[in-house]
Design goal:
- The structure is a single chain.
- The chain has helices at about 5-15, 20-35, 35-45, 55-60, 65-75, 95-105, 115-135, 165-170, 180-190, 205-215, 220-235, 260-265, 295, 345-360, and strands at about 50, 80-85, 90-95, 145-150, 175-180, 200-205, 220, 240, 250-255, 280-285, 305, 310, 330-335.
- The protein is globular, with a radius of gyration of 21 Å.
- The protein has a 6-stranded antiparallel β-sheet. Strands 1-3-2 form a 3-stranded antiparallel β-sheet.
- It is about 40% helix and about 15% strand.
- It contains 14 helices and 13 strands.
- The longest helix is centred in the middle third of the chain and has 22 residues, at about 115-135.
- A hairpin with a 2-residue loop joins strand 2 and strand 3.
Length: about 375
């Protein structure tokens, strides 16, 4: 297969449907930096599901021992996930987002470095912010991510569901890791980053083990994870996780200026860029002093001045709770959101739902 057709096919596989011509060409140029032609060709034969090496070998028509070194090198580059089952290895082609793109910037020793990294960061920014973001990320009705409210700000009148407590995921998950925020790292490379902490990207479970083994993140214990969570909350960052109930893989701590998901709201006016939490901020107008501290804390500009007070846009509020903790008048609280839709159970269900919705949208 010719290189141009090869990377066009890979772009189609990673985006699940055809992008417009301009966005498609930009994605192809990105993939040419990240994948070699040989890796791209192998990636076309890989599944997004974890697959035994023997099955992959049968699909590709090569011996397992010949494929393993190539797949291991792709894993080192953040292109392929490696798992273990019994005494054998399993491999999975990582999605573009979240997955391949984040891993290019999370580690202290990135797969692409030097001038090429700056070029890659610029190309990612152009693709997602100027061309491919709304096409690629937000075409499905079901968001890939969801917001979790700050636990300490959920009032006693509301019981937190098990899937609404990050502390539970931290306590109950064996393997934990902390890496650099891809979004703020990319912006830092381009000289555009904000002052929010970078080392607060949290990874859970088998994927945490993988990121540690490959140098994309550092192993962490429960105490370290909770301290990172506290730093993120003090900085007013929004907790964003997989839009599932069971065994989340990551917790991003997002700012509205750098985060791709939150920019879906701020820059592209896509209300379903992330799924809102079960809560929403409610203002006590009598208690509000109009100090506007909450306006600075809100990452998606859902709070604005209204006369001598402030006003919260309930339809826009993520329900993250960042505004509640720093209100000096204690005029803001979290209450349950009407019509809340609980997340699906697991990652397989989420991916199938998004794939079906994306394909349906692409045919319209």
């Amino acid at each position: 297969m010719e290189n141009q057709d090869l990377f066009k096919s890979l772009g189609g596989k990673l985006s699940f449907y055809s992008l417009d011509e301009k966005a498609g060409r930009k994605l192809e140029d990105i993939l040419k930096i990240v994948f070699t032609p040989e890796e791209a060709e192998l990636a076309l034969d890989l599944s997004f599901a974890v697959t035994d090496i023997e099955e992959i070998a049968g699909t590709v028509g090569k011996k397992s021992e010949d494929l393993i070194p190539r797949l291991e090198k792709m894993a080192d580059k953040g292109l392929v996930y490696v798992g273990k089952k019994g005494g054998g290895k399993q491999y999975q082609l990582l999605p573009l987002v979240p997955g391949i793109i984040e891993l290019q910037f999370m580690g202290e020793k990135p797969p692409v470095s030097g001038p090429a990294q700056v070029k890659l960061a610029k190309m990612f920014e152009e693709f997602f912010e100027q061309m491919g973001l709304s096409q690629f990320l937000f075409r499905a009705k079901t968001p890939y991510t969801r917001v979790i409210a700050v636990e300490s700000q959920v009032g006693p009148q509301s019981s937190i569901q098990p899937y609404e407590a990050i502390s539970r995921y931290i306590r109950e998950t064996k393997d934990l890791a902390i890496g650099n925020c891809y979004c703020r790292t990319e912006k830092r490379i381009l000289g555009k980053a904000c002052s929010a902490p970078v080392d607060v990207c949290m990874v859970f479970g088998p994927f945490a083990r993988f990121t540690v083994e490959r140098g994309f993140a550092q192993a962490a214990n429960e105490s370290q994870m909770l301290k990172a969570l506290d730093r993120a909350e003090k900085a007013g960052l929004v907790h964003v996780v997989d839009n599932i109930q069971e065994k989340i893989n990551f917790t991003c701590n997002c700012c509205g200026c750098c985060c791709g998901f939150l920019q879906g709201i701020n820059r592209f006016q896509v209300p379903n860029a992330v799924a809102f939490s079960r809560f929403q901020a409610v203002l006590d107008q009598k208690a509000c002093t109009g100090c506007e501290v909450c306006i600075d804390r809100c990452q998606i500009k859902a709070i604005k001045t209204s006369g001598k007070k402030v006003k919260i846009d309930a339809k826009k509020c993520l329900g993250c709770g960042a505004c509640v903790s720093t209100c000096p008048a204690e005029a803001i609280s979290l209450s349950e959101r009407k019509g809340f839709r609980a997340p699906v159970s697991n990652l397989t269900e989420l991916r199938m739902t998004i794939l079906q919705e994306t394909q349906a949208a692409a045919t319209k």
